[in-house]
Amino acid sequence: MSTMEGQIDNYCLKEEQKVTKRKISLSSCGVCGSEEAKYRCPACFTHTCGLLCVKKHKDDSGCSGVRNKTAFVTLSHFDEMALLSDYRFLEDTGRFADGATRDDLIQAPRTTLK
User: Fold this and answer.
1) Is the pLDDT reported for residue 101 higher than 60?
2) Which residue among 58, 96, 102, 114 is buried most deeply as judged by most CB within 10 Å?
């Protein structure tokens, strides 16, 4: 039975370490400061705890909440997600340009008066 108790104690110690590690890694809400932050603004990286704090953050700071797709990423922080983001940005740009060439209102007349 002593080995079983040792395993249970070891398991409880590991669970406590996980809980304390999680509490240390998360910060408090940047708007109200009273609760643990669950969300982060993609534009300015402000930590918030809920929808009310997100709305208050946007009203107070004038933040749009939209991530800057053209922001510089250093090579040391460039990973697969940054590559995928860049690829999607280029696809959207190409799709927008293609839509502009197909739109009759945007196109200039191709005839000359000479």
Assistant:
1) yes
2) 58
